[in-house]
Specification:
Distance between the termini: 56 Å
Strand order of the largest sheet: 6-7-8-3-9-10-12-11
Low-confidence stretches: 338-375
Mean pLDDT: 87
Bound molecules: adenosine-5'-triphosphate, iron/sulfur cluster, magnesium ion
Shape: globular
Radius of gyration: 22 Å
Helix content: 25-40%
């Protein structure tokens, strides 16, 4: 079998949002470092899961890759071209290949357009079909995603949440793309509908040889669908590995903590296993911590972590990690280790002789850093 080839190469990708102050004279006073130097490849035909807490930069990453946001720095290589260098005119034909499915099917569809017009829009923008041909293609797309083509003149509000997401998927498929960013496509849907949409996406991937970047909040949500999984924290990648390998052998302390929060169906194992607790909130991307951005919450952190940014490097074949424990494995002695699900009290924390002395007892949580662009 031939080696999988990268479809998209991402190099040192940065997306910073400037923060301005002043009414008459606006000046940049700071930057939200939403994405701050990502390096990874996305292989042809794979599903790469991207997980991390709210506000860590997942959506920004997806949008920057397909150039919905023009990145501050770095490269996105697709078809041998760096998309970040291209003018809008040069980018336009490539946009056909790069599509997005949005989290909220309610907000992402124009309520004043019929389903037919919504799905036809990319065909119109890229001048791919007109008149009867366009209408036939729209009907074909509706059938592909499991919608009744007779509803072509209906409006989004006449459909259920799951059907609306199918409309979004049909729109993304219209131009026969090669790469689709799926930004939490099922998280706004009822649990009963989620499996149907996941199955549909898997079928479509096989049928049309699609490549997905599949964004989700937690590891449980991407386990089933992903070939490889990337874990993101505060604008950087913490770890990236084959799905099976990541679940069996999480190397980054953040992945380890996320993994311990994934529920296990067996109540006995669930009771006995250790729940790793993370300290504090996710810091603000306006002022990320020095060195390793995870050091303020990491149960292993020592002085080096505060000063030196760990490289994102290969631990084993195809398993990449950004952590100093890689070359100092003897440091992998967690403060407060040994807490099981039954022991909900704050963990015993050894006195940190290494400077990192965070608060105790906060659980892994979804928190959004308060970031406001002032004017
Ligand atoms: N247009 C923007 N202007 C300024 N800041 C932004 C903008 N878009 C995103 N951000 C900030 O960038 C950071 C990353 O946001 P992003 O939406 O990418 O996170 P996320 O991981 O997708 O979160 P969620 O899981 O909640 O969707 C956040 O701090 C957010 O407030
Ligand atoms: S580099 Fe240090 S702070 Fe960062 S994850 Fe590794 S041990 Fe924790
Ligand atoms: Mg998001």
């Amino acid at each position: 079998m031939s080696e999988p080839q990268p479809l998209v190469k991402i190099r040192n990708l940065k997306m910073h949002f400037p923060v301005y102050r002043g009414v008459f004279v606006r000046r940049e006073v700071n930057r939200v470092r939403a994405v701050d130097g990502l390096n990874f490849d996305i292989y042809q035909g794979e599903t790469l899961g991207l997980v991390g807490e709210s506000g860590c930069g997942k959506s920004t990453t997806g949008r920057a890759i397909i150039q919905l946001y023009r990145p501050t720095d770095g490269e996105v290589i697709f078809e041998g071209k760096n998309l970040c260098d291209l003018e809008e005119k040069e980018l336009h034909p490539l946009r056909r290949d790069l599509q997005m499915i949005f989290q909220d099917p309610y907000a992402s569809l124009n309520p004043r357009m019929t389903v037919g017009d919504i799905i036809a829009e990319p065909l119109r923008v890229h001048n791919l079909a007109s008149g009867r041909k366009r209408r036939e293609r729209v009907q074909e797309l509706m059938e592909i995603v499991g919608l009744d083509p007779r509803f072509i003149r209906r409006y989004p509000h006449e459909f259920s949440g799951g059907q609306r997401q199918r409309i979004g998927i049909a729109r993304a498929l219209a131009c026969e793309p090669r790469f689709i960013v799926c930004d939490e496509p099922i998280s706004a849907l009822d649990v009963s509908i989620q499996a149907q949409i996941m199955n549909l996406m898997e079928d479509l991937q096989k049928e049309f040889d699609l490549t997905f970047l599949f964004i989700a909040h937690d590891l449980a949500a991407v386990r089933h669908i992903s070939d490889r999984i990337a874990v993101m924290y505060l604008g950087r990648l913490a770890e990236l590995a084959d799905g099976e390998e990541l679940y069996a052998n999480p190397l980054h302390p953040y992945t380890e903590a996320l993994m311990s929060a994934v529920p296990i169906p067996d109540p006995e194992i669930e009771r006995q296993r250790e729940q790793i607790v993370l300290e504090g909130d996710v810091p603000s991307p306006l002022n990320p911590p020095s060195g390793c951005v995870f050091h303020t919450r990491c149960p292993y952190a020592w002085d080096r972590c505060k000063m030196e940014t760990p490289a994102f490097e290969e631990a084993t074949d195809g398993h990449l990690v950004a952590c100093h424990l890689l070359d100092q494995p003897e440091r992998r002695k967690r403060r407060g280790a040994g807490q099981t699900q039954n022991e909900k009290a704050a963990p015993e924390v050894e006195d940190a002789d290494d400077g990192a002395s965070p608060e105790k007892g906060a659980v892994v949580e979804q928190s959004t850093p308060a970031v406001e662009a002032e004017s």
